[in-house]
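quick one
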Amino acid sequence: MPIKMSANHLSFFYGDFEALSDITLDFEQNQVTALIGPSGCGKSTFLRCLNRMNDLIPGTRVEGEITLDGQPVYGSRVDVVNLRRMVGMVFQKPNPFPKTIFENIAYGLRINGVKDKSLIANKVEESLKQAALWEEVKDRLSASALGLSGGQQQRLCIARALAVEPEVLLMDEPASALDPIATQKIEELIHLLKASYTIIIVTHNMQQAARVSDTTAFFYIGKLIETGETDVIFTRPEKKQTEDYITGRFG
Ligand SMILES: Nc1ncnc2c1ncn2[C@@H]1O[C@H](COP(=O)(O)OP(=O)(O)OP(=O)(O)O)[C@@H](O)[C@H]1O
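structure w/ adenosine-5'-triphosphate:
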């Protein structure tokens, strides 16, 4: 598969603290890459570098390069709003807006300049279908999103991210706040979405990484220790640190 996004010698600093050190990693198009590693090793920081969400934190600094379709993400002429549309994000805790189900999705379209009402209605339906939520909510689009279950709220957040037609989807532990059935739905959804999107997922759940991803990257204290095909990483990793982590000896 062609390379959709790349990090080249990426380092990241919170003030003087180097949270990521010299990370070089490619993300193939229409593949799922899992980022794994113990708490605090920089997985979320790395994910947020990919769509420049860290720009919002004062005192932070990036070295090295990230590219999307070969174009630098940190270039001075980059339209960051458009970058975040192209590289969408879903967070650990479902965070729907305190608005109706319909408005949760329509909102992102409107801030991206879509005004046509029937276009918005079609897109809301299409996004909810893509997120495997349509059947459950089609009769209550004008009800509050906060009345949905946690798993439904997370699929709504995925629908919201998809509505603005991203190409890459970043998911930061998207199922960790959900029960096993809702988690399974999210995992099935990731499998379906892979056909249309490039997906990068942070997870603490080794079984989940093994189930959903094609490639796995193991991070440890701000460094990328090892990356490769998920089957290989989980059965015959090259590095001892990777093996210790996936077999539960630390982390
Ligand atoms: N806003 C911030 N300001 C300063 N330091 C931060 C900030 N956010 C994260 N860090 C530090 O950067 C390091 C990496 O944190 P990060 O949240 O990226 O790790 P993580 O691997 O995603 O952890 P977890 O799995 O627990 O979510 C940690 O040492 C953390 O304390």
